[in-house]
From TrEMBL, chain A:
Highest rank taxon of the organism: Bacteria
Name assigned to this protein: DUF2922 domain-containing protein
Any one Pfam family match given in the protein's UniProt record, by short name: DUF2922
UniProtKB/TrEMBL annotation, chain B:
Protein known as: DUF1659 domain-containing protein
InterPro entries (UniProt xref): DUF1659
Pfam families linked to this entry: DUF1659 (PF07872)
Domain DUF1659: 2-72
Length: 76, 74
């Protein structure tokens, strides 16, 4: 049976210039890029996350990845 | 012997309500966000958790803050 999953991948840049990704499953189908950017701006403004390269300082990338999995074999 | 309590990174957990089971009890899916500063304010965690959950399809059922600390003998 084919199952379809979507993942929202928000990529930030930290103080060391490295990318830090926060992924969320099942984003809303009607979510807008502006909404996602606003949430990322809030993450940066509230500064609650830390990483091996320091605080998150800027937005780098936003992707929604749509993947389909075909499960071809299930033991009876 | 005295012991020092050294705070480590906290974890922010979002519980999402993905549906109901056959018996009517809620089915929750949990998403953990690691690397939370121990000094982060509760209000900030709440606001960020709410904003992130707002991007998702499923409604937010609860927010949990898990604080960690290491006990080190002084």
């Amino acid at each position: 049976m084919a199952t379809n999953t979507k993942t929202l991948r928000m990529v930030f840049r930290n103080q060391a210039g490295k990318n830090v990704t926060i992924s969320l499953d099942s984003p809303r189908s009607d979510v807008t890029p502006a909404e996602i950017e606003a949430a990322m701006d809030l993450v940066i403004a509230r500064n609650i996350f830390t990483s091996s390269g320091g605080d998150l300082v800027s937005k780098q990338d936003i992707r929604i990845i749509d993947s389909t999995t075909d499960d071809l074999y299930d033991p009876a | 012997m005295a012991v020092n309590n050294v705070p480590g990174n906290s974890v922010l957990k979002l519980a999402l309500h993905v549906g109901d089971s056959a018996t009517g009890s809620p089915v929750l899916r949990s998403r953990s966000l690691n690397g939370i500063k121990p000094a982060a304010a509760d209000q900030d965690l709440f606001d960020v958790a709410t904003a992130l959950a707002g991007l998702q399809q499923y409604p937010l059922n609860g927010i949990t803050r898990v604080d960690n600390s290491a006990l080190i003998s002084a």
